[in-house]
Amino acid sequence: MAEALAVCADADPTVVRGYAVCSAATPVGFFILKAAPATPHWADDDTVTLHAFRIDERQQGRGYARAALAALAERARRDWPAARQLMLAVNTRNLAALGLYLACGWCDTGGQNPGPIGPQHLLAYPLA
């Protein structure tokens, strides 16, 4: 989490923004959204990318991730109205996360990224 906070603190807020996922006033998770030119090489310029999406392990299974995924799409539409899609990269071995994203309407693009700890699926979610 400290690494994610550092990314946000040092970034241009017009292209990199960090968000807390809260239950009442208690943080239960966070995520980062990036727009061009801060997006990874695998994203088009009209794409907002999702990074560092985490829900506290003790809070998992309570619907916070599903609610956050719905909210982050609306946030991306509001903050970057020209964006046509969201994208993310998820490790091919992270079957729980992959299943969650697919159940929430994300689509596997068929592309892959090498990733820091192994191959990653590239998923997309339409904003338009």
Automatic annotation (TrEMBL):
It comes from the Bacteria. PROSITE patterns: GNAT. GO terms for molecular function: acyltransferase activity. InterPro entries: Acyl_CoA_acyltransferase, GNAT_dom. Residues 1-128 form the N-acetyltransferase domain. Keywords: Acyltransferase, Transferase. Its EC number is 2.3.1.-. Gene3D superfamilies: 3.40.630.30. It holds the Pfam family Acetyltransf_1. This is GNAT family N-acetyltransferase. It comes from Crenobacter oryzisoli. The lineage of its organism: Bacteria, Pseudomonadati, Pseudomonadota, Betaproteobacteria, Neisseriales.
